[in-house]
Amino acid sequence: MTVYLPSWLRRYLTPLVVGILLIGLLAGCGQKAEGEAPPVASAKKPVILATTTSTMDTGLLDVLIPLFEKETGYTVKPHGVGTGQALAMGEQGNADVLLVHAPEDEKKLVDKGVVINRQLVMHNDFVIVGPPEDPAGVKEAGSSAEAFRRIATQEALFVSRGDDSGTHKKEKAIWSQAGIQPSGRWYQEAGAGMGQTLNIASEKGGYTLTDRGTYLALRKNLKLDILLEGEKSLLNIYHVMQVNPDKFPDLEINSEGAKAFIDFLLAPETQKIIGDFGKDKYGQPLFFPDAGKDENSLGM
Fold this sequence. Notes:
It is a single chain. With 300 residues, the chain is an alpha/beta fold. It is 41% helix and 18% strand. The strands form two sheets. Strands 1, 2, 3, 4, 7, 8, 9 and 10 form an eight-stranded mixed beta sheet that branches. Strands 5-6 form a two-stranded parallel ribbon. α8 (166-178) links the parallel β5 and β6.
């Protein structure tokens, strides 16, 4: 007999697990036990979420996902990767919903019709951190571009994420504004998420660019201080969006689950949780809720 597995399940399960399931299904097809209960309706398809590492490293999704699952009956399968990778997952139809922070690249996917229902969720900001002794004099810099020029001039160690994440994209934009193409032994690419990059910079006494939320969440274990902050261009804005099911008719994108997740993030109750997250532990919120706001109205 032929056993059919829906494409959403094939996307998620490894070939080994699929094989085990097939064997179990075939073995169970021979006989029906007396008094067997009627088949139970299948569970809702899981929602595959591709998101930036900062939403995971800060612990925000550890709070939000269980609430969403309890409220809706969906299961969320989060993939915490750099924003570039998260957007690529969306473009390949390997996710149902994206929560990312690279507005210009997000708009490109909107224009291509790859994603729909793009909504502003929250923001925090980027900061430049480094060793307390600040050998490059970043504290005296008047802008992020000047701070980067000071680091390059002194050839002070700078640890880049180097992973095409939203933070990495912002870092490259600042180097461009500074008129510098960073290279040499002083410039090291971690190829890692924000948490790991911060740990490397701390261990080696280097500088890096980070979102404030991840830094605050890990600060007690870091030998790094915030040396430059508050610049308008350092706003870090997060949007959520659905992958367009019409672009991937053979993959059964979980459109209903994706929309439910977006609606949940934008709900007033969830926005309050986002705004309060981190206050008790760090003395300040890690994110600021923005549902329904105009992106151009956001400030530091």
